[in-house]
Amino acid sequence: MLSGWSYWPESGAPQARFLILVDNPTDNSHIANQLAELGLVNSARLMSLYASTLGRFGPIEPGPHWLSSGQSPRALSQCLSRHPSRPTSEVTIPEGFDHVRVAQRLEQAGLCPAAAFVAVVRQRATLDRLGIRGRDGEGYLFPATYRLPLDANPERLFERFVTETRNRLRRIEAKLGDAPFEALSTSRGWGESEILTLASMVEKEAQRDDERPIIASVFLNRLDDETFRPRRMLQCDPTAGYGCIALGETIPSCQNFQMRILPGMLRDASNPYNTYRHPGLPPGPIANPGEASIVSVLKPTKTDFLYFVASGDGRHRFSRSFGEHDAHVHGSNAD
């Protein structure tokens, strides 16, 4: 090992993350100076020498890089060139996380800055290229545990999640049989976007797997039952909250949003995600649904329920009429 290196963190010491911008990928000395200024290496001269000789893992990739303290010169060089052999990090995306919370997890894991990932998920050109019709890429970050390379390009990372989501959808359809995607396309004109949208609503409402197909049936019944009023209003509280996450303070009722759904938010028609003021499905998914919620939309329970309310134990009470529902509410906030 070259003398002058000091890169191993103390045992148990937290790693710091640093964003550097590579605008001239052939200038090893400038890049090494940036690393030294941030304390990622002790010697810019030795790092530049290493990168020019032992540390060649292909051309350095221009643009932003998300690097961690405590990395060896080899790992730093691998990250800067985004070499396939660079170190990896394991990250778990739980069911029901929205893309902002996913981005925060990716940043904490050393994969990419949260803001950069959010920007890609909301970039219209990227969404069009990937065939995603929603306002953003919500719903396409499939909940699972991933092992991913450090300092990932945010756009490639998003593509990885989209590919995983579509692979999972194909596997779910194959497991269920009877071509449920084709059936929904024929009966409702729905594609993957609509299926993921309703699945995300089920994900945010349900806590128990056995209730997911019932909650899906309630939303479908609200779309279809001509007696339900207001007509085709799905009245799902979390949709209004997602509008605040995705569109922020451009929506008046989202000023100083603290992740709580307030009555004024449910009355705000300027929120395009608010299913109390806009009929039908919202403009896209409101979270990233897991397999159980997706299955619930593809294979809902056959019911005539139009209402449900939380019972306080993680379960819900379902009813067919507003009078029955009102009797169940007992002062609770209902859906």
For the largest sheet, list the strands in their spatial order. Answer: 1-2
Termini Cα gap:
64 Å
Q: Hey, roughly how much beta strand do the residues contain? A: 5-15%
Order of helices and strands: EHHEHEHHHEHHHHHHHEEH
Percent helix: 40-55%
Rg, rounded, reads: 24 Å
Unreliably modeled segments: 1-13
Largest sheet: 2 strands, antiparallel
Mean pLDDT: 92
Shape estimate: elongated
Beta strand count: 6
The number of distinct helices, counting runs of at least 4 residues, comes to 14
Structural class: mainly alpha
What count of structural domains?
3
Quick summary of this structure?
The protein is mostly helical and 335 residues long. The chain has 14 helices and six strands. The strands form three sheets. The chain has a two-stranded antiparallel ribbon with strand order 1-2. A two-stranded antiparallel sheet has the order 3-4.
Keywords for this entry:
Dna Ligase, domain 1; 42% helix; 335 residues; 14 helices; mainly alpha; two-stranded antiparallel ribbon
Q: Explain this structure to me?
A:
The protein is mainly α. It folds into three domains: 17-86; 89-169, Dna Ligase, domain 1 (2-Layer Sandwich), CATH 3.30.1490; 202-329, no CATH class. Helices cover 42% and strands 9% of the residues. The strands form three sheets. It has a two-stranded antiparallel sheet with strand order 1-2. Helix 5 crosses helix 7 and helix 7 crosses helix 13. The model is unreliable at 1-13 (pLDDT under 50).
